[in-house]
Each structure stands twice: as C-alpha cells, then as structure tokens.
Design a protein that fits this description.
419 residues, GH, alpha-galactosidase activity, globular, 23% strand, 9-stranded mixed sheet, alpha/beta, 2 domains, 3-stranded antiparallel sheet, single chain
Length: 419
Amino acid sequence: MKFLKTIYVTATLYFINRAKAELWKPEPGTTWNDVIADPNFNIDIEKAEVVEVDFQTSAKKIELYHDYGKKVICYFSGGTIEKWRSDYDKYEAIPGLIKNEYGDWPGEYWLDFRVEGIHDLILARMREAKNNGCDALDVDNLDAYNSKEIKKWSNPITAAETVIFARWLSEEAHNLGLSIGLKNIAGLLPELSDYYDFAVNESCVNYVNECGLYRDFIKSGKAVFGLTYGNFEEKLPIMCKELNGIGISMSFKKTQKLVQDGFIFDGEKYCGSGYKNGYNHTIPVNVTTIKKTITQTLTTTMTTEKATQTSTTIKSSDKATQTSTTIKSSDKATQTSTTTESSDKDKQTSTAVTNPEHSTQLSETIENVKNDTQASANTEKDNYSSNNPIDYYVTSSATKSKKMFMISRVVNFRRRWNY
C-alpha cells in the first residue's frame, strides 16, 4: 500500500512539474487588449498579441482566438463576487463570505477570502477557465487590504493575509498548467513577484512612481500589461513621464468599459525622441494568423514485370486522408500512386483550389473509357468489383493496348490538374 501511495505521489508531482514547465510566460513589450466587456469583439481587426476575456467565454470562441495566433488571458474576481454570476448562490451559501457592496460597482460585493470554503469555489472557476482553453488567469480585486471600505470592518483583511491568499492562487493556477498575472497591488511585488508570471495594472500613471514599482519585475523578463483610461490628449504628458523607460505594455481606452475600442500605446511614437519603451520587443503592425488546411499531392509512376494484380486501399482520419491505387498487369505494367494528405497547421497558409470543371471533365473521361471497352468487359464481369474502370481494364490481356492508352489518358488528366 505504501508502495502504491509513493507511485501516486511521484506521478502527481511529475505532471504538476510538467504543467509548470509548459506555462506561457509573456515577455515585456507583448501587446494586449482587455475586452472582458465585449464578448463579440471583432477578432479580424484585433492587432494585439494577447486578448483578455471573461473566464466563462466559450471554448469555441477561445479556440478561434488561438487560430488567429492570440494568447488568451481569462478574467475573474477573486476578492469580490458579482450578483449576476452563475455561481453566486454557492458563494452566498457560505456564512460570512459575502460582505458589503463594492461602492464603485453596484451589484458587486466584497469577499472575506479568509473564510473557509472559498478555496473550492475559486478552484472550480480555475478549472472552468482551463477547460475552456484559457492560457492564463487575471484574478482581480485582491486589494481589499488597501480599501477604505474594508478598513471599516471589525476585523479587516491585512496585507500579510493577502500575500498568503495570492500565493495560494498562484500555486493552484500553476498546478492546472495556467499562467497567472498579479492584478494591481504593486506594493506587494517584493513578496509576490516570484510567484507570478506577469502583472496587470490599471491607471498606474495616475500615481507618482507607481508604474516605476514594476521596473525590477520587468527587468526579470516578465511582462506588465497596463491600462490607462480617459482623454488621450490630457493623459499624454503624464503617460510620457511615468512610463518612460519602464517597459509596461500599455493599452489606452476612453472609459473603464472594457470593450475592443482603444489602441496600443507606443511612447516612442507619441512622446518623442527622449522616450524609451524599455523593452526590445517589436510591436507588430497586425497579428492575424489563421489555421489553414495544407493540401499536398504526390504522383509517382513506376514500371515493373509482375503478374496481374489489383489492389485499392483507402484510409481516413480526422487529420488526414490517404488514397492509394495500384494497378499491375503482366509484362510491362504501370503502377500509379496518388497520395493526398491534409493537416491543420498554425501560422501557415497554403491553398489548393479544385476547379469544378476539371472534376466534370475527369468524370467524363473515365466514363468514355468505360464505354469504349464495355463490349470486351462482358466476359469478365466477376472481376469488376471496385467500381473503378481503371482497375478493371488492366485485367484483360486481349484489350491491353487499348486499355493502357485509356489509362494514360486518365493518369495524364489527373497529373495535369493535380487530382
């Protein structure tokens, strides 16, 4: 029994370590767009390399975003609960977990994440995000310790308790193979930077040197995704000052309603020659990589002396289809093999176009071959089983010369049009 337990623990640690090794870790300068309030945003025009969506976004949509070459961060709040969430009743069932309403956001309530029972609810959300195909998590509202509303509690949440909860979030996300970003709470970076793969910050430019708190985090090779809201002309001077040389990937939006509208802030473009982005990452003009089907056709002709033999093999699967037809006859026989493979590959585009006219002409050619030799075929009806005139015609030596001529017509037709 102890032996089996040791095997189980060893296997579990192996898979956890493997999941952690495969974590997505964005580099500084990676561009992003937060669209959590815009579930039907237009992926065709999205320029950012990373999109952030709600964690309950369908697996089908997230797969589409991946097909366009995007990485997907999935959002949920770990420090509050929105009343409209499908799991609200489960939160409400735990005594003492839901606290007072979050003043800035009606219908959203603070959580006392120290209450026993919240872990299972958070883990359920993480698993849902994982099952939907998310690459990473953005867990919001961990800044209760810094809120005036929370400080009015008889037993308010402390910074030390926040560090414990935030480390637990990181460990569980990594165990599931999900990257995780530290949302705001830049003041706790010294205690948490080693646990998080990237960071997300809102409005650091509004506070003197808050953006600068991320300098060492970025120098360690981890991206910081920023959001700035408001009137761009009014915000530009302070953005140029607070972001210069830091390396934050900043997205600008007019309002806090996180829809697609907005743009990637390039300080070197807007702030002049004295500004340095603070990273070596090149901002792409547009990132649109669509999964395509690659079709490759290979035709080979061989000559050999073998007895008459006909074989047809057809194999099919979700990813590829292979068809091979081998035709042999006595004396000098002709063997033709045509292989078609199809596979889905990201970041590649190859198109094979089939003209309907060519398909019609091929059918007519085969039909003519069949009609021209129908008279001589009557004596060999038992051999005609494959419903392919070519397989049948090569079995009769009496009409060999005519049949080989007809075969060459079909083969040359296929070779010409890549059938």
